[in-house]
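Ticket #382: bound-state structure for flavin-adenine dinucleotide.
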Amino acid sequence: MSIILTKEMLQMKEMIGHFVEREVDPLAMQIEEEDAIPQHLVEQAKTLGLFGISIPEQYGGIGLNAVGKATVLEQLGRTHNGFVSLISAHTGIGSTGLVKLASEHLKAKYLPDMAAGTKIGAFALSEPGAGSDATNLSTTAEKKGDCWVMNGTKHFITNGPIADVYTVFALTDRSKGAKGGITAFLVERGFPGLIVGKKDKKMGLRGSYTSQVIFENCIIPEENVIGEVGMGYISALTILGEGRVGLAARAVGSCGKLIELSAKYAKERIQFGKPIAGNQAIQWMLADMATETEAARALTMMAAQKIDEGKKVIKEASMAKLFASDVFNRVADKAVQIHGGMGYMAEYPVERFYRDARITKIYEGTNEIQRLIIARNVLQEC
Ligand SMILES: Cc1cc2nc3c(=O)[nH]c(=O)nc-3n(C[C@H](O)[C@H](O)[C@H](O)COP(=O)(O)OP(=O)(O)OC[C@H]3O[C@@H](n4cnc5c(N)ncnc54)[C@H](O)[C@@H]3O)c2cc1C
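RESOLUTION: The complex was predicted; output attached.
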């Protein structure tokens, strides 16, 4: 498989590389300490068009294809994962439903502001009783006149506290469940009955906020159904499939950065009178880190390319997410090991990457669930 990037894409990759190195990396410690992304950084990201990478040009976005988006997300993955999470949740699961499945009216109404980053998107599927089993929703939406009335609680919603538009999944026909009884809605923060919970305290991803989003007789206009009534579970799978490729790309970017940091440290750190890089034990760790990262990149780009070819990627997206997130965790662990005690210190970025890697095995479907999806597909194919 060979991926050839256009000249424009190569230029964009370089530009984002400079942005993360010159503008985001120097603020990583501040983001950690304040658990907040400096507003001027958000404004810079808007100017660069990062909030619109996946939104078509006709709505003001850059309209990258899946390979282009994976390339951008890999570059972003090299820096603070909390900052990247804000953008990737918005450009991924927070807007894919609108871009791919919504009516022209909804696209024209919401996408221009989302492309500009003036309206932030979020994806609200998970509930206290519906995590891995996302079909077990308690949130309901009942048709009353020309509106829907939504009740229920979503939790762990990335961008929840700051989002303006939420793609929300609710039961619209309990008797049908996931097979025709779940519907996706576009819910605005200002709709009566939408309540945002307080920010969750997390292990990592500082600066990226998650919270509960609660619906108490929330009134949603009929036109804000995304796609067809009853087809919400299929919509969720479509949105998550593409999101998983983006998550894998970010993980690959983080691995690339960790390899560079570790190789540099290994060459500089002297023990027993020579750089630790001279020891085979260190070299083998670097070799495994580099090999696994290349394999994760290949799997990710293969899935992205298939999306661009219009092919079904449920299995490939799960493979990319599963493998890249596992590799990210192994690479982060080795990076800490190569840094020795320094790797445990917050002043070194590897400590942050190590904490931030952990969530990639859990969200957008745990890695156990990815294995179930892959196995189900393999059993069907063979
Ligand atoms: C920081 C963060 C951000 C998030 N952002 C979002 C978001 O933006 N939108 C959103 O909708 N959700 C979001 N989530 C929720 C996330 O997708 C879920 O946490 C995840 O899907 C797992 O669900 P759960 O936490 O309920 O775990 P559970 O489903 O309770 O799983 C617990 C354990 O059991 C395992 N398990 C469960 N069922 C099976 C099975 N059949 N076979 C084998 N093992 C199984 C799981 O793999 C896991 O190891 C976020 C979560 C976090 C922590």
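RESOLUTION NOTES: The chain has twelve helices and ten strands.
TICKET STATUS: resolved
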